[in-house]
Amino acid sequence: MKHPKISQALRSTLVALTVIGASLVTFSQPAAASASGCTYSGYPVDRCVYVNGSSTYVNYIEGTIRYRTGLYLEIEVWGDGIYYRGHGDPGSPSDTTFVHLPVNRNLASGSYVCVAARWTDGTQVSPACVQIRR
Hints:
Layout: H1 4-28, E1 33-39, E2 45-54, E3 57-67, E4 73-79, E5 82-86, E6 96-106, E7 112-119, E8 124-131
Antiparallel strand pairs: 1-2, 2-3, 3-6, 4-5, 4-7, 7-8
């Protein structure tokens, strides 16, 4: 024979533990926040940077440059301890260079993440930047 008070107390405890467990799972997941910036100048090239993360923690950076088909440019991405210069994703359209860089760490508060284009002679087209803030 079951004791009604024990059964009710056990059910109440299980419900409470389930609610607490669900709230811990919800709060332990990282919050998604982002920042982006673009420098639109049309010809010869537009630059955009997208930073995905929360506060100073950055999950990844995406950089894009768009330009007239036939120009030869490299994309350059930099920030706090981050540097990439190259041709980006080979699957990008002929008028776009795109790069996805996993970061998965905190960057210094107040630092910048920037994307620029480089001509074949090494000169740089002014960057698009976003600031990392708490």
